[in-house]
Every structure is written in structure tokens, then in C-alpha cells.
From TrEMBL:
Residues 6-143 form the B12-binding domain. Its cofactor is [4Fe-4S] cluster. Residues 182-428 form the Radical SAM core domain. InterPro entries: BchE-like, Cobalamin-bd, Elp3/MiaA/NifB-like_rSAM, Methyltransferase_Class_B, rSAM, rSAM_horseshoe, rSAM_sf. This is B12-binding domain-containing radical SAM protein. PANTHER family: ANAEROBIC MAGNESIUM-PROTOPORPHYRIN IX MONOMETHYL ESTER CYCLASE-RELATED, BLL1977 PROTEIN. It holds the Pfam family Radical_SAM. Keywords: Iron, Iron-sulfur, Metal-binding, Methyltransferase, S-adenosyl-L-methionine, Transferase. One of its GO terms (cellular component) is cytosol. Gene3D superfamilies: Cobalamin-binding domain (3.40.50.280), tm_1862 like domain (3.80.30.20). The lineage of its organism: Bacteria, Bacillati, Actinomycetota, Actinomycetes, Micromonosporales. SUPFAM superfamilies: Radical SAM enzymes. Signal peptide: none annotated.
Length: 532
């Protein structure tokens, strides 16, 4: 009988129920590189990019010889697919451990262990998977930092993971699926920093960072970033999505941006880039230098135009800073997607009015319609606050978010009406915004070709919002709102159809792929008349 040590690992992204089209998983690329540098045979399978079902993914996993363990990256709405795949694999490979990591497993460890996984990785996984591999190969390892697993029927949490403060110490990620992503017209991904220095109560990033002792925000050097960009350009990438949670944090400043742009030019890079920015971290010099470096589009976390709301969420930015950031971004001709949150449990009409007036000031700001709500995600301070307000009755959990009610009656009436409207038109919003939000491998002018459609959709939403606000002040009854909704649906149906047709033509002309699912984050609104 062979006594050889197993030396193969499968790292998989399950198929994902998402309103966005598939993108490469950079996290698994980092894990694959760490393991391959140790001599491990790593097979990466991206079922999202390949369009594989759980059965097809399970078959691919079980075909791998000499399998030591297999693992899944879970986020958003692919947990069900990961669990189903694991159960299928275990029918054939009963003794090979199943591992899972990501935001969902980090905050719902017990659930994932009870669902069939043998190990849950909590937080960043680079060093955890090395220790886990050593243990499973029989090496003398007393613990697996960052891992949770069952021991004698109880969940054991090993000591917290160790996250390196020096991101340059990590090798560049493997790029098994970058070519596939590029062939689908998607941008290549790069990570230049991890974390965020803000303390927003609703943010899962902050909660995720509590799983280890490390600086809240960590950066790679300019030399390291540019070296990887050179490699990506050599692979054929011209459009880059910088997946940092917050691209500009101290010590990155205007001088850093100048040196970064200089390095881009010195290396002959010709790239267009997209990333996430905080409104309170930018000024004209920073934005000008980033444009010289190749940035053409941003997702900016404005969130809300009411100072009372920003304070409620512990947002560090002020309303004035939000307006100033948008002014500068417009001046420098950037394509800007606004990260907006309109409703939470404490919303009142005056706050909605403040946002309505601000929305009207920025018709060029890319948003997915007007309706948005604060997600009460597992593990966040905001969710803990909400649960403390429910008199020990836990809020219902749907997916990875808790469901709550808007407490103010008039604001709740507007919420219900706007959500029903948004759900009815969600496919139009999602398809129109996907080339900018995903983002796709298109230039600024091609991005801007979607703006007229997005602006018309937003205008329709704001007209509806105005009517809902006026009705809620006069007569916040279900009957009155439903009558108004029916009238607006009939009036705007031809406009929505025309916008959809225009977007379809743009997809055909630009040869873009759209194979997304209905938005899983939109929890169906309560029936009219139901108690909130």
C-alpha cells in the first residue's frame, strides 16, 4: 500500500447567483501562488467564469489525483452552490477535507461547519492555507491560525490568523483565469492595498479586519504594483480593475500619486483603470495625477447627502466633502459611479428630501436607479445595534443579510413604494450599469455611451420618488401609493422598453457579454398592507 503524501489541492470559485457578470477571483490566485511556491500541485477551477453547475464542478474536483484537500471562495450568493458541490464531492471522496473561506464563512462559521465543511478559514487565508496543508500532510503543526473545525463535536477556533503587514512579501497571484476574463471582455484585476481606515458601522470590511491583528490598511510599494501591471499588460490586459477597498489612504497622498503616475509612464504602460475611492480622501492634485496614471472611472462611496445620516453611520466624510469630491471628479471628466444608501431603519422624510434635492444636482452621476437600502450584514456593528433594538427577538436572516423595517410610518411608505418600483425595473438597471460597475474592457467614450440610458432610468426613478414623497406627506396609505404606482407603470412602460432596446444595441456593438442573474440582494418587499 502506498504511503506517499498527497500533494494536490483544488481551489474553486462556485457558480454565483449575481446581478453582475463573472469576474476573475484574485483571492484564489494569491492562495494558488503561495501553495505552488511550496511545491503543491494546485488546480484552480472558476465555475463562475466557466458557467459550471455544482454537479459539473464536483466532477472536476473528483477527477484530480492525489487530492489532499479542496476549498471554496464564498462571498455574496454562491454559498448554496458551494454547499451543494461539497455534498456531491463527499459522495465520492469521503475522507478528503472540504475547506471554505471568505466573508460568509468568516461571520457564519457554525453554519458552514454544519453544512458539511471540515475547515472554515476566517479572514485572509494566505498563511492559513499553508499551515493547513502542513497539518494535513502530517507535519508537526500544533494549530492552524485563522481556522475553525470540529473537535469531539464542538467547534474549535484556533488562534487568530497572522496577516502580513508587508504586502510586498506576498508573491504575485497566479493568473489561471485572467485570459478567460479578458476573452469575455472583462477587466483584469489587481490588488494594491487591503483594508480601509474608516469605521463605518455598516461595513463588513471593518468587521473582517477584526479577525487578525494587523494595520487597518496595508499598501504595496509603487515598484511592486507597477511590476505586476507590466506583467498584466504583457498578458494582453489594457483595462484594469483595482479591487482595493480604499485606494487612497495615508500615507498615499498627492506626492505618492505623482510618483505612481511617473512610474506608470516610465514603464511605458498604456492602461485604463478603475477603482474605489473615499470622497473625503481626494483633492484636485490627487485626481489629476491619477488621471495621468490611467484612471478613467471610480466607484465613490458617497452613501448619503444628509449629515444626520452620515453621523448615524459613523461615516468620516461630511456632506460638504461629498459635494466637493463630486465637483472635482466632474471637472476632471471622470466617469463616476456613486455608492448610495437611501434607506435604513431610522430614515425619516426630511432625510429623503435632502437626498432627493442632491440627486437632482448630479444627473451625470451613475447610479442603479434611486432606491438603495443599508444591508445589515452579519458581524457588523450596525447589525448588532439593530438586534439590540428588537427586544431580544433576532431579526430574520435572508442570505447573509438581516431584514429590518423602516420605523417611521411615512418613510416606510416611501420605502415600500420605491422598492416595489425598483424590483419591477431591476433588470433594466442591472444590465445598463454592468459595463461600468463590473467593469468591462471598454474606453471612456464607450463607457459614456451608456450614460444617456442610465440618466433616463435615473430620471424616471427620481420622478417616481418625488411623487412618492408628496403622497407620503399627504396620504401615506397603501391604496393611494398603489394607484400612483399603477399610473406610473403605464406611463413609463414605453420609455423603459426604449431604454432596454438602446442598451441591447450597445452590447451588440461593443460585443459585451451579459449572463447575470436577477439581483439576489433585493429581498422581495412585504405585501401591501402587511405589518412592518
Amino acid at each position: 500500500m502506498s504511503t506517499s503524501v498527497k500533494n494536490s489541492v483544488v481551489l474553486a470559485t462556485p457558480g454565483t447567483t449575481s446581478h453582475r457578470t463573472a469576474e476573475e477571483n484574485l483571492g484564489l490566485g494569491y492562495l494558488a501562488r503561495m501553495l505552488r511556491d511550496r511545491g503543491i500541485n494546485v488546480v484552480v477551477i472558476d465555475a463562475w467564469l466557466e458557467g459550471l453547475s455544482p454537479r459539473q464542478l464536483a466532477d472536476r474536483i473528483t477527477e484530480v489525483d492525489d487530492l489532499l484537500w479542496y476549498g471554496f471562495a464564498c462571498y455574496g450568493f454562491n454559498s448554496t452552490q458551494a454547499i451543494e458541490t461539497t455534498n456531491l464531492v463527499k459522495q465520492k471522496l469521503t475522507s478528503v477535507p472540504a475547506v471554505v473561506g471568505g466573508f460568509g464563512p468568516t461571520f457564519q462559521t457554525q453554519y458552514f461547519l454544519e453544512s458539511g465543511f471540515d475547515y472554515v478559514v476566517r479572514g485572509e487565508a494566505e498563511l492559513t492555507v499553508l499551515a493547513l496543508t502542513d497539518r494535513l500532510q502530517g507535519k508537526d503543526v500544533d494549530s492552524v491560525p485563522g481556522a475553525a473545525y470540529h473537535v469531539d463535536g464542538r467547534v474549535k477556533h484556533d488562534r487568530p490568523a497572522i496577516w502580513s503587514a508587508d504586502l510586498d512579501s506576498y508573491p504575485f497571484p497566479c493568473r489561471d483565469y485572467t485570459t478567460t476574463a479578458l476573452q469575455r471582455g472583462s477587466a483584469a484585476h489587481i490588488s494594491t492595498a487591503r483594508g480601509c481606515n474608516a469605521h463605518c458601522l455598516f461595513c463588513s470590511i471593518n468587521a473582517f479586519q477584526t479577525k487578525a491583528s494587523a494595520p487597518r490598511w496595508r499598501s504595496r510599494s509603487i515598484e511592486s504594483i507597477v511590476a505586476e501591471l507590466v506583467e498584466l499588460q504583457a498578458l494582453g490586459a489594457r483595462h484594469i480593475k483595482v479591487v482595493d477597498d480604499s485606494f487612497i489612504e495615508p500615507p498615499r497622498d498627492g506626492e505618492w500619486c505623482t510618483r505612481f503616475a511617473d512610474a506608470i509612464e516610465a514603464n511605458g504602460l498604456d492602461l485604463t483603470m478603475w477603482t474605489y475611492l473615499r470622497a473625503d480622501r481626494v483633492d484636485e492634485h490627487i485626481l489629476s495625477e491619477l488621471k495621468r496614471a490611467g484612471f478613467q472611472s471610480y466607484f465613490v462611496g458617497v452613501e448619503n447627502f444628509s449629515q444626520r445620516v452620515l453621523d448615524r453611520w459613523s461615516k468620516p466624510a461630511t456632506v460638504e466633502q461629498n459635494h466637493e469630491a463630486l465637483r472635482l471628479l466632474r471637472k476632471l471628466d471622470y466617469v463616476v459611479q456613486g455608492g448610495m444608501i437611501l434607506f435604513d431603519s431610522e430614515t425619516v422624510l426630511d432625510e429623503l428630501e435632502e437626498n432627493y434635492e442632491a440627486y437632482r444636482q448630479y444627473p451625470w452621476l451613475v447610479t442603479k436607479g434611486a432606491f438603495t437600502e443599508l444591508y445589515a450584514a452579519e458581524g457588523t456593528p450596525w447589525t448588532k445595534i439593530l438586534n439590540r433594538r428588537t427586544d431580544n427577538e433576532p431579526l430574520p436572516l435572508v442570505g447573509q443579510n438581516y431584514v429590518y423595517s423602516v420605523r417611521d410610518e411615512a418613510a416606510r411608505a416611501v420605502y415600500d413604494a420605491m422598492k416595489r418600483w425598483h424590483v419591477a425595473h431591476q433588470p433594466s438597471y442591472d444590465k445598463a450599469i454592468d459595463p461600468l460597475a463590473a467593469p468591462k474592457a471598454i474606453n471612456r467614450e464607450q463607457m459614456r455611451s451608456f450614460e444617456p440610458a442610465l440618466q433616463r432610468l435615473r430620471e424616471l426613478d427620481l420622478d417616481f420618488m418625488r411623487k412618492a414623497l408628496d403622497l407620503a406627506r399627504r396620504e401615506p396609505s397603501s391604496a393611494a401609493l398603489l394607484e400612483m404606482e399603477a399610473e406610473e407603470e403605464a406611463r413609463t412602460a414605453p420609455v423603459f422598453a426604449a431604454v432596454d432596446a438602446e442598451v441591447d444595441v450597445l452590447y451588440q456593438d461593443l460585443k459585451l457579454v451579459y449572463d447575470a442573474d436577477p439581483n439576489p440582494f433585493l429581498i422581495k418587499p412585504a405585501p401591501v398592507g402587511a405589518s412592518s
